[in-house]
Amino acid sequence: MIVDDSTVARAVLSRMVAAHDDFEIVALAGSAREALDALRTVRADVILLDVRSGGSGLEALPRSSAWGVARAC
Q: Is the Cβ–Cβ distance between 59 and 49 less than 8 Å?
């Protein structure tokens, strides 16, 4: 999952991750709130999270573990 309030940053990160066959992007979100909502329906092993993202990315970290996220970076 990629979380960033910048559509450009999400697009660039998506292309970088997609270039590696070992990774699959399960969701894109523009805010921590959108990310937490998405985690209700998808499982993310890794979250690339802009901690300054809209909706307070730092506050989302503890809540992401409640949805079974293995690691947030």
A: no
Task: Provide the 3-class DSSP secondary structure of residue 65.
Answer: helix
Per-position DSSP letters for 55-66, written without gaps between them: TTHHHHHHHHHT
Rounded Cα–Cα distance for residues 30 and 25 (Å): 14
Phi/psi at 13 (nearest 5 deg)? -60, -40
pLDDT in tens, 35-68: 888 988 998 888 888 876 555 555 655 555 555 5
| Predicted TM-score of the model (pTM) | 0.75
Residue whose pair of structure tokens reads 């450009």 in the numeric block: 8
Q: How far apart are CA 51 and CA 17, in angstroms?
A: 19
